[in-house]
Amino acid sequence: MSISRQNLTVVIVTLKSDHVIDQCIQSIDGNISILVVENSQNQDFKNNIEKKYKNVSCILTNKNIGMGSGNNFGILNTKTDFVMILNPDVLLFNDTIDKLIEAGKLLKDFAILAPLSDNLKFPNYKTTSKNVNNSNVLEVDSVDGYSMLINKKKITKLLNTEKNEKFFDENFFMYLENDDLCKRIKDNKEKIFVVQDSKIKHYGAKAVSDKFYNEVELSRNWHWSWSKFYYTKKHKGYIYALIEGLPKLFSSMIKYFFYLIINKKYKSKIYHKRTSGLYNAIIGKSSWYRPKLD
């Protein structure tokens, strides 16, 4: 089955995203169904967005369950064979979807397709191979989670149902859930591609309103440290993760005390969160930290 507008749903996970969600939705073809997963119990947000856009439906999770869990929730509530995961701070160009559809018809066999970020300084993919044929479609090792089109049926077949495996590992609250999905796909010998003439604009770290910047930044530092250790432990083992993580733990602790002593309070908080996130991962605690966005 090929990608088409009728066989594609865009899933967007939001939280305090009122300032960017409209421009994101308006950049998407109105003939494509959009499912917004709002990580709160904000009924006004749901009512307003569904009233404003005929092709948009919104589901409330009633609490902040994170990006991976939110995307899983969205995927399970779609009926199409293809789902495009999109962050609310991403804009599509007029031909972004068209180029993905064209590439999908040519490839036929893929697990993930991704458009290319228009910011060449910050590529949204990783690869160890070279594009020797200068092909428009480049096979890669992983793509960033803010924009990826997934072949739902193909990836579903890869999941270990006995272990209740899902598209995104819900142990990750924030960061590296996309890398984990891509690694599992590649380990199963399936293919991930970037379509280089399909472009997107990603504003980066703008999904949540700037008025919560400080709190979100603390959360990012906590979860990056936690997720990095968990990802390494999952794929390389606990000892490897510990050897890699301990120097970072001690470095963060030293910087925390240093900035505390010189009275750089916010800077010390940053390193406190890094230390806490990594420490909690090392002792096997879940990614429990949540930003305060009230």
Kindly give the count of domains.
2
- CATH architecture name of the largest domain: Alpha-Beta Complex
Q: What is the residue-mean pLDDT, rounded to a whole number? A: 94
Q: What is the CATH first-level class name of the largest domain?
A: Alpha Beta
What is the count of DSSP helices, taking H or I runs of 4+ residues? 9
CATH fold name of the largest domain, please? Spore Coat Polysaccharide Biosynthesis Protein SpsA, Chain A
Low-confidence stretches: none
Shape: globular
Order of helices and strands: EHEHEHEEHEEEEEHHEHHH
First-to-last CA distance? 44 Å
How many distinct beta strands? 11
Tell me the structural class.
Answer: alpha/beta
Molecular structure report:
Helix 8 (about 240-260) runs antiparallel to helix 9. About 45% of the residues lie in helices and about 20% in strands. It contains nine helices and eleven strands. Strands 1, 2, 3, 4, 5, 6, 8, 10 and 11 form a nine-stranded mixed beta sheet that branches. Strands 7-9 form a two-stranded antiparallel sheet. By secondary structure, the chain is of the alpha/beta class. The chain has two domains: about 5-200, Spore Coat Polysaccharide Biosynthesis Protein SpsA, Chain A (Alpha-Beta Complex), CATH 3.90.550; about 210-280. About 45% of the residues are buried. Strand 2, helix 2 and strand 3 form a beta-alpha-beta unit. The mean pLDDT is about 95.
